[in-house]
Sequence to fold (277 residues):
Amino acid sequence: MMDRREFMDRLGSIAVGGLTVAMLTSTLIPNYAIAQQVSFNDKDIKATYEKFPSLMGHGEGNGYLVQPSTPSSGGKRPTVLVIHENRGLNPYIKDVARRLAKAGYAAFAPDALYPLGGYPGNDDDGRSMQSSLDPSKVEFDFIAATHFLKDHTSSNGKLGVVGFCFGGYISNFLAASLPNVVDAAVPFYGTPARTDIVNNVSGPLLIQLAEIDPRVNASWPAYEATLKTNRASYKMHMYSGARHGFHNDSTGRYDEKMAQIAWRRTLDFFAINLSST
Fold:
């Protein structure tokens, strides 16, 4: 671990042979413009920002709600809560919500940074802002968002959760905190819920792990043992050669092949577990 100044100094020491610090950092900074897969004005979807009460958290939350523009049969459809990384509701996560809406879901992506004014427009500031928040209040905000989406007028009563990194942890946390509310959870490279609640997890879970992710993967054996003891319904996929964050197509960690496989599995998993029948 090092601060930003030391990182830039060390980066400068390897900027040789025609490479510059700017060229090196350009591979590390997210490029959201080229990574967008579904346009915000795609005719097949409609998006709004919705507030929700969070009495045990920060009082009020806010998120990005995306739904198919064509009404569903009976006006109801399955819902998916989309949980961002440790930097707030950035464009990548909004795009994930739009992808789910294109697949037929009502997707809601809350912004943990809303109490501080929302995602600031860059990940560095977003990361600092999120680290300044009370973790327990953030958790309660996501619990409140889960209930908001489950009870939404467009919901068919089935709710899935998908999250990445910090959002992977929150996905596991919600599966443990609200086992009777969450119908299916897909944590991408996330650590398990706290030991005092992890025994509540019953699943179904689709756990997506990157092979090159020592911190998160170190927690998997104990988590799997707990899931087996509890006879929880789960499936784990380890993505060969992939690094932590491999699904994020705005960064250099993106692994297109593994991300596409993982996303196809995610959609198949939700199709099986969030059907109203």
Q: What stands out?
A: The first strand starts at residue 45 and ends at 54. The chain has two domains: 1-29, 40-273. The chain has ten helices and eight strands.
